[in-house]
Amino acid sequence: MAIKALLDRFDPPAHLPDFNDLPGLLDQWDRAMIHWFNASIASEQGQVHPGDPVQFYNPRVFDPGGIAIDQAVTWNAFPKEQTRRFGRERALREADKLTPLSRAGFEGEIATRTFFRSLNEYCEWHVVRDPDTDQILRVTFTSEPPEYWQALYGGTYDLVGDGTLDTFSGSPARVLKLYRELVSPAVQPEDLICQESLVRGGFVIVKKGDYNPYNKWNTTHGIVHLCSPPNTITAEIQLGADATILRQDPRRRPLVEPDALICCSAYGGPDRNSDPTIGAAVNALARLGAYVTLRNPVGLYMDHIELGGWSAPDGRGVTDCVRIVRGGPQTIERLVVEVPAARGFTVSELKIGGVPIQTGGQIAECITVRLVGTAVPSRLSNRPVSCIARCCIDPHQATTLGRPLALDAPIPPGKRPAFVDQGTVPVPLGPAAAEAAGAAAPAAAVHPATPARAKFSRRILAD
Amino acid sequence: MDAIVPQPSPPEEPILEMNDIQGLAIPGFFKPHMTLLGLRYPGGPELARLKPLLAQLAASISTAQQTLANRRAYRAAREASQVRHPAAAPRIVLTAIGFSASGLAKLTPGAQDIPSEAYQQGLLARAELLGDPTDPTAEGNPKNWVVGASGKALDALVVVAGDARAEVDRRAAELRGKLRASGVEIAYEENGDVRPDLPGHEHFGFDDGISQPGLRGRASAAPGDYVEDRAIDPRQTPEAWLWGLPGQDLVWPGEFVLGYPATSPDPLFAGPPSATTPQWTRNGSFLVFRRLRQDVALFRRTLRQESERLRKLPGFDAFTPEYLAARLVGRWPSGAPVNRVPRTDDANLGEERRANNNFRFDADSAAFALKGGFKDPFPMAKADPAGITCPWAAHIRKVNVRDSGSDLGGRDSTYARRLLRTGIPFGKPLADPAAAGEDSEKGNRGLLFLSIQASIEAQFEFLLARWMGDPTRPKTPGGHDVFIGQNGEPGAGRERRCLLFGDGLQQAELATRAEWVIPTGGGYFFLPSIRALREVLAQ
Fold first, then answer.
1. Are B488 and B131 in contact (CB under 8 A)?
2. Is the predicted pLDDT of residue A432 greater than 60, yes or no?
3. Fewer Cβ close by (within 10 Å): the C or N end of chain A?
4. Residue of A71, A74, A301 to mutate for B, most B C-beta atoms under 10 A
């Protein structure tokens, strides 16, 4: 804990060194991050009560003045969305599969043959199997954001949709070299370039001629960085900002429960491990009156992998079967699970709790993902605002919350609103208590709900 | 002004088939005396002698109906006499039987279709995942287990429980005779009894089993005939439908009995039913048995050493051995939660089941008036989101984050991980921990841990391996469950460590390799329904 001054510079995730010898790139990354933080903060201005400050701050330009406390937030890497939808057994099989962009709202024929991994916990993996035996040879995990690679490649991008573009000088040759090292020597320069623009909702998400995050060496033929549409660093920053908005239910009780809060605030996917956990942690700090930000270097990381209960057929342990390739302990960006050739067996012959590894997901269940927030207690006393959304649940198949819906959107047929009169800090109601609750809220009308569509987090854009 | 949404009505809860579910599962045997019989039997034609016995036994296995009726009568007698163990209470002997995957497969081929990895593998194969020692010379390694060791896994477990030791012994003797006559080997036998000196407390001195999940579900179609008491007046708060006793989460019964609705993302909505494959597993449950030896002398010695070390640090003056132990558990020995009484124990709070589980972690707790007019007189818990009062690594916080949220999102992630614990201590208490050399039991005391759950992997194993056994889960920076967890991570030397806070927000780490809870055996069992026992297993 230390008295904070202004942050000198936003560094790349995990202090990855690839920018270091490319002139100007570290500064460009810093400027882009400042832009993204500022854009997120600006987007919250219409959410808080007039006169209340936005509690998410940009540490490059604002020092709240006080003791900064770091708060790590961790969550499990296996996609809860898939477990909720399919049950664990089927989810393990589905999670290894790719999904065409057409299922994420991307348009045109190109979207039917461009793929992404539907793994929305900020950790994605790629399984390589022996084509003859189908045994798993290698599983590679990444938590690197696509923006890092867009910057490294170079180009001008519209990443936060506020009319301001981000330009990076970058080096396509560097990216090619890394792809060849990390994935395959067969990567060709044109493979990394978008051949046909990828469009969603009328917006160009990846421009023809730009670096293509959905290139085949990062999807069907390998993995280098995150590619699922919600898994971006800009979404992470937006999530942090959104989650500082204090919410109250129609009875004016503060919303605190992680799932109820995310449905009310629409800052991410309610069926995930990541978004409800991150959002609740940020919101709890905001409720304590703190300014909150993300700690530098901002990114997503694998914290560690649990190897307890893993066994190998030769009985000689598994620690040499797991390699951190990029990043470091607690800031892992790329992790590979692969048995050294000399041992003479494959990943499929490793067991977890006596069960052979048949899917990448079994390994993901052992991985914890992490980000670090920073809170500066500042005695803020923002007034909570109303919810802007809700989730609905099917009472006959109550497995998922689905995407948050605007409050004025019709309830889907057969569904019912979730978390009605729940998710707050329960206090006894009674005539005296009700009066006190009413008195606590400002005499002015409760802040009108902002038109919800404009504010829904980009963490929800996919599926 | 937003419209006030009308108060939700209580969810409709399923009627449980109380005559078909074993009473050990619902509502559980909570009797002061228990005997476990571990059985092994051959397969093939030899079963011709066992099967008729199973058919006979089906008539005397205690049903949920019988067990609940006894519990209700007991509580009514207690209420009437205002005595904790009323003399007028009806006495009973209860019986249950569960089968391991190997034992079940000998009885019916459908056993192989039960889709539980953990059950099919058996506890032996899963021991490493749970963090049990891999060193073959270690006492806790399955090779050295007292029950269910490598090559001696049990086929079945019989549980006899009752109000009087003599009656339990009589029933156990009767069963033993019949089983032996049917060609069954009694490979293991052990008594468990509540501590005569501290009834309800386990051998480290702590009141055990306070926070049980409340079961959603009705015992019959009669209005209001819930299996679990609903104590909170719903006029107090719309959220009253979430709880039985204050602080007792109501969990859908499919988390404990197969075939009933389980947890959904919204606790007031019933989720899809827990799977029943094969169909006859409906109304069945999984039973986890772990024989845990407790090295009381080592526990006390380590507490003494560590508290001495901590007291030398600024801000840690309060850390007597008892204070430290309460931080590792999250409750004082009486059962009073540290969040409600941070500085010293309060035996009255510990004993009061309408108050001893009423607390949240992340926000201030409030008291609700209960039906019958009880008003909670004890100090309410204050918000403790950072784990300053009750460390994140405290045992009760590791296995149930309550309102805090975990690494798996919101509340359903805890609801879906609850266990119904129906174990009991074994061995005489250690009178004087400092005089361990004169211990008549030679350290052979501990807990016959028994838990009921619909999924061994998602509930029991998850809690032990993932939340208790990992230092960053469910929240970081917390540490391991130092009290009763294990660290089986390769290369970590089995060291457990946790973060503790002093008076002025000072932090200190406690790290220890002392293992005072040693697994000495057990097994994974399936408790069939009475009908399955009679119509499938006995056929």
1. yes
2. no
3. N
4. A74
pLDDT (tens digit, 9 = 90+) per residue, B141-184?
999 999 999 889 999 999 999 999 999 999 999 999 999 999 99
Please enumerate in sequence order all residues whose Cβ is within 8 A of that of B437, keeping only pairs 6 or more positions apart, or say none: none
Interface touch A74/B237, C-beta < 8 Å: no
d(CA B251, CA B536): 30
Q: What is the pLDDT of residue B233?
A: 83
Q: What pTM did the predictor assign?
A: 0.94
Contact A303 B473 (CB under 8 A): no
Of A79, A354, A347, residue with least CA distance to B116: A354
Closest of A63, A104, A18 to residue A374, by C-alpha: A63
ipTM over the 0.90 cut-off:
yes
First to last CA, chain B: 67
- To the nearest whole Å, the CA of A321 is away from the closest chain B CA by 13
Give domain limits for chain A: 2-69+235-295+374-460, 76-232+299-372
- Please determine, for residue A463, whether its predicted confidence score (pLDDT) is greater than 90: no
Residues 373-392, chain B: which have Cβ within 8 Å of A? Answer: 385
Q: Do B490 and A272 touch (CB under 8 A)?
A: no
Query: Which residues, numbered 215 to 274 in chain B, qualify as contacts with chain A under a Cβ-Cβ cut-off of 8 Å?
Result: 235-239, 242, 264-272
What are the b/e assignments for A355-366, b being 16+ CB within 10 Å?
Answer: bebbbbbbbbbb
Residue B154: C-alpha distances to residues A132, B158, B293 (Å): 41, 11, 19
d(CA A348, CA A153): 35
Residue ranges of E strands in B42-132: 93-99
Gap between the Cα atoms of B196 and A356, Å rounded: 47
What's the whole-number average pLDDT of chain B? 94
